[in-house]
Amino acid sequence: MSEDDAAAAAQELEALQAIYGDDAGDAPVRLEIASPSEWRFRLGADAILEVFVPRDYPSLQAPTPVLHAPRLGDRASALVDQLLELYEGAEARHMHTNGLTLKHSTALSYVSWVLSHLLSDRKIAAASHNMVAYSFVDASSGVRVFDNDDDGEGGSGAKLASTIDNKGARDVIVVVSRWFGGVHLGPARFKHIASVAGALLEEQGYCRGRTGGASRGNKKGA
């Protein structure tokens, strides 16, 4: 394993532990580290996703997912195929863009407008990282549109997306900006990112919880 691969895999694992580890609150997924090359995601009470990480990941090879879910039967292998397709799609996007790929739709046009407006502020534009996550139901198609971008802070976009999901928020875009002050925070930075995002969603009235309930605020985004 090259030093670059080892560093990238370690950074990804650190982000996953921050999102799905013991301190992840009420997230329905739990991460267990069997070894540096075997990551296990416990999905509820009776399903486990094992991810085997090759030595030359991520530069040359993709991880190998194995889903143990007796209740799914033959559908388990189809889900694994979908996971691999998602991985390949994410890699292609990472290679060919510097940020989110925004397709034409009402919701995504709004996302693009919000980001452009925020980045017109010099202070925000100068941030070390502007992390983004959003979740909308597109008015023109009725399809849920969601994505995230970590702007170089590996794993932070997924942490924001997880926070939105855990709070039950919809029709919202969350942008958290971070200015590096010279002190490395380690995994604690993910807790701060989630805390800031969660507090903002609650303050603006977007938190429904996983089972629904509270109505969202009058504003279009946070």
Automatic annotation (TrEMBL):
One of its GO terms (biological process) is GCN2-mediated signaling. GO terms for cellular component: cytoplasm. Coiled coil: none annotated. Residues 114-199 form the Impact N-terminal domain. It comes from the Eukaryota. It holds the Pfam family Impact_N. PANTHER family: IMPACT-RELATED (PTHR16301), PROTEIN IMPACT (PTHR16301:SF25). Belongs to the IMPACT family. This is Impact N-terminal domain-containing protein. It comes from Emiliania huxleyi (strain CCMP1516). The lineage of its organism: Eukaryota, Haptista, Haptophyta, Prymnesiophyceae, Isochrysidales.
